[in-house]
Design goal:
The complex is a heterodimer of chains A (100) and B (432).
Chain A (H helix, E strand, L loop, with lengths): L1 E7 L4 H16 L3 E7 L4 H6 L2 E4 L7 H7 L4 E4 L2 H5 L3 H11 L3
Parallel strand pairs in A: 1-2, 1-3, 3-4
Helix pairs in contact in A: 1-5
Chain B lengths: L2 H23 L1 H27 L4 H11 L3 H14 L4 H17 L3 H15 L3 E3 L2 E3 L10 H21 L11 H8 L1 H21 L3 H17 L2 H16 L4 H25 L10 H6 L6 H10 L3 H15 L4 H6 L9 H20 L20 H7 L2 H34 L6
Helix pairs in contact in B: 2-4, 2-5, 2-12, 5-6, 5-7, 6-7, 6-9, 7-9, 10-12, 11-12, 11-17, 14-15, 14-19, 17-19, 18-19
The chains are: A alpha/beta (100), B mainly alpha (432).
Chain lengths: 100, 432
């Protein structure tokens, strides 16, 4: 089972996205755990995640995260998909990246 | 968007992005922000007890008294236990969260640094000698001493890290179990940090002053003058919006600098309210959270009213509900508002305008200033938050007025942006 972690400043707006992605995953029968968390205290969760999705509003944290987790899959969520809260598209992107 | 415009935008966006990355990589800024994030929940918790103890309705107080069969002052006093142990010692709480968050970032012994910082903080705090023995006056460790707490946390960690990095440690023989030797290894760095603060205290004694007074009167003064003025608050809001315009989390970047100032101002209000006086600081953390951000939500309402294009209609519906709770990302990225030059002016200024409206209303005493007794998360819905933090229905009325003004400001801009989208939708050159 895949472990997908969404990160933003407080985990507020990403938690909206999580709900949409969960709905899409259920529809497609894709087995995964999707969670949202605040960037600041996410370290233990990051360790166990297969892929990190970063809210576009905190894209500037990307260099810091890359440095800290050079081996993690890091993706910034597409701005358009994020604005439309399009869980389906974001999930498809995840599946493509993880080739599931 | 023309070529020159987009070139300028690209450069500007890159520069701001670099600035944001630099801020987020700066351990002091992020440590202060994290320390405040760890402290603020306790202000919410204490607020719940405090508002019950200082409830504005006589009828409620009489009811509770008659149920409990005791004087109002008695049960109110018991409710205040929580306040005296949390909000009233805000400085002490912040020195802990501060030392912990910075030690975490410096990757040094977190618990050791935290405890050392508490010791250092109390070294700087003059004690009272009473008949019952030595005592610490609560107000000397209150949020008033926030800057002293922040600096104590930083310098304690700095000194600790310096000595620790030099490798000066008490070496135990190999036969000693690590659990026994570990506390000794951190002995010298802590000793050095404590000795340094002790010397500072001696110097302050010789000068006839104390750390809190000295820091608040020097470093604190300009911060309060700027942060406590409408220009500072509105300016911070505009800067925040500018960052958001380029898709950067403005609130997170600005809060590391501004939150401590607003918290201290809030705390001064709380003190006055508790003494039965009228709070004096118009600008406070309640003001910034609940009265200075009413602008952009007006854009979503304007879109709900005027949108004709499919895109804007759809997004305004998606964005409206999260925005009731202050979550603006769907609106920001959905319409989108970011990098949308049709919406630039209201996007940058509507929040600041809402702050000015609120400031005028408070200054003219049309609405009572936020009491400081109730601190609410920024996700508290409009109208509810306004009424609770000012302890008056007029606080909600003020937010309603701000909302209407903001919507009116947004209407023409939203209409223009929407018609542009509508034209492309009808012209067949649809989105990808």
């Amino acid at each position: 089972m895949r472990n997908i972690l969404l990160l933003c400043n407080m985990g507020m707006s990403t938690s909206l996205m999580v709900n949409r992605m969960k709905a899409a995953a259920k529809e497609e029968g894709y087995e995964c755990q999707i969670r949202a968390h605040s960037l600041q205290k996410a370290d233990p969760m990051i360790e166990e995640a297969d892929i990190l999705l970063i809210g576009p509003q905190v894209e500037y944290e990307l260099p810091t995260l890359r440095e800290k987790y050079p081996d993690k899959r890091l993706e910034v969520i597409d701005i358009k998909d994020y604005g439309r809260m399009d869980g389906k598209k974001v999930l498809h992107h995840v599946r493509k990246v993880l080739s599931d | 968007m023309s070529d020159t415009k987009s070139k300028f935008t690209d450069t500007f966006q890159m520069k701001l992005g670099q600035f944001a990355t630099a801020m987020s990589a700066n351990i002091y800024v992020t440590a202060i922000r994290d320390a405040m994030l760890a402290y603020v929940p306790f202000t919410f918790i204490a607020s719940i007890f405090l508002i019950l103890a200082c409830f504005p309705l006589e009828g409620f107080n009489n009811l509770v008294s008659s149920i409990l069969h005791c004087e109002a002052a008695v049960w109110q006093g018991k409710l205040m236990y929580v306040h005296a142990s949390s909000l009233a010692i805000g400085g002490l709480l912040v020195v802990m969260t501060m030392a912990h968050s910075i030690a975490e970032k410096m990757k040094i012994n977190e618990i050791q640094v935290t405890v050392t910082a508490v010791v250092n903080y109390l070294i700087l705090t003059p004690m009272l000698v009473t008949d019952a023995g030595k005592a610490i006056a609560l107000n000397s460790v209150s949020a008033e001493a926030m800057f002293c707490a922040i600096l104590t946390g930083i310098f304690t960690a700095k000194i600790y890290q310096f000595i620790d990095g030099k490798g000066i440690k008490i070496k135990m023989p190999d036969a000693v179990p690590p659990a026994v030797s570990a506390p000794f290894e951190s002995l010298i760095p802590s000793f050095g940090a404590i000795a340094a603060f002790w010397i500072v205290r001696l110097i302050l004694d010789a000068m006839g002053t104390n750390a809190v007074a000295l820091i608040n009167n020097t470093l604190g003064l300009p911060l309060f003058l700027i942060g406590g003025s409408i220009f500072g608050a509105a300016g911070a809001k505009i800067f925040e919006q500018l960052l958001w315009f380029f898709g950067l989390h403005g609130g997170s970047i600005v809060s590391g600098v501004m939150t401590p100032v607003f918290q201290v101002l809030e705390d001064q209000n709380r003190n006055l309210s508790m003494m039965g006086q009228i709070p004096t600081n118009i600008i406070s953390s309640s003001f910034y959270s609940h009265f200075a951000s009413v602008g952009v939500v007006g854009g979503v309402i304007a879109a709900l009213i005027v949108a004709k294009s499919r895109q804007y209609k759809e997004i305004s519906r998606i964005a409206a509900v999260p925005y009731i709770f202050g979550v603006g990302e769907p609106a920001l990225f959905g319409f989108p508002m970011m990098l949308n030059f049709d919406l630039l002016i209201p996007f940058l200024f509507s929040n600041a305008i809402s702050a000015v409206i609120a400031y005028v209303a408070f200054a003219l005493k049309l609405v009572p200033v936020a009491t400081g007794l109730v601190q609410l998360p920024w996700t508290t819905p409009l109208l509810v938050s306004g009424a609770l933090v000012t302890n008056s229905i007029w606080g909600a009325v003020l937010q309603l007025v701000q909302l209407i003004v903001a919507t009116v400001i947004w209407l023409p801009f939203m209409r223009k942006a929407d018609r542009r989208i509508l034209a492309t939708e009808n012209g067949g050159s649809a989105e990808e």
